[in-house]
Amino acid sequence: QAKAAGRNTLRFFDPAMQLAANERAQLEADLRLALARGELVVHLQPQMDEDTRLCGAEALVRWQHPERGLLGPAHFIPLAEQTGLIVPLGRQVLQAACRQLAHWAGHAAAQGLAISVNVSARQFRHPGFVQDVLQVAAQAGAPLHRLKLELTETLLLGDVEDTVARMRQLREHGVSFSLDDFGTGYSSLGYLKRLPLSEIKIDQGFVRDVLTDPNDAAIVHTILALARSLDLQVVAEGVETEGQLQFLQRHGCGGFQGWLFGRPCAIAPFEAAYLPGLGGPARQHTQQPEIA
Ligand code: C2E
Ligand code: MG
Ligand code: MG
Ligand code: MG
């Protein structure tokens, strides 16, 4: 068998690695098709203000896979980043978010809501990124001052001058920026000050045990103090319990996102649950989709 497969090349090749490589190639081909067929869908998760009122939503991509069901981003975002498919994928997510913003702009009950879109470092660095965002938003008729882009600290590993220049160009058009998963990456405080951010998101890893782990409580406390002194908004991610919310509120956190308020769901059930005045389908208790 080894002979048939090619004597010198495959002898030392780990069959498990070969299998993984095949699966990866298949997944890449599938993902290309998925982009062309429109199988990627955007779900929305509510974001709350300091009074726990709805103030916006985060757009989170899912893949409605014809055989494997609804797949979460962990299954395909890393591959999309490696292959460059994150550029067209990210554009589709941005398109969906911008269409939603344009739709909400026409309704009094929804026109104040913002949408946050995750942007990968590779997508952000793509030469056409700034133009893409402006073009997609203009085509959709989206108010750019309601669009927030979530960046991660990996961007800080690249050319910071270039990062700041791109952010400034978009900010001139009203786009704002949030630093996602704050505390898990490489931020030096010096960089944090240089970036034209308006918000940081406390990673859910610090929120989870904030009531029981004094280290996490101290970190959350420090992040909130830092944000205050740099005049940044803060959103706590992964808020699941009333106790966590109370801790965060007591320490001056002004924004919340997590299962306590709602899991990510498709646009129609999101509007039915949070914006019943929009005249969509009647308010109903919707089953949250399970993602793999
Ligand atoms: P993220 O941007 O930090 O998004 C928050 C993640 O936490 C989401 O996972 C969300 O479903 C989950 N989450 C929210 N509230 C809770 C909670 O209370 N408890 C727990 N346990 N989890 C909660 P999801 O949707 O699986 O997304 C994972 C990551 O994939 C995102 O993390 C983001 O980094 C990436 N991602 C998602 N959509 C996109 C996209 O359109 N483009 C890019 N580049 N990345 C995306
Ligand atoms: Mg995010
Ligand atoms: Mg996050
Ligand atoms: Mg994350």
UniProtKB/TrEMBL annotation:
Stretches assigned to the EAL domain: 24-278
Name of the protein in its database record: GGDEF domain-containing protein
UniProt organism field: Pulveribacter suum
Residue window of the full protein shown: 743 to 1034 of 1035
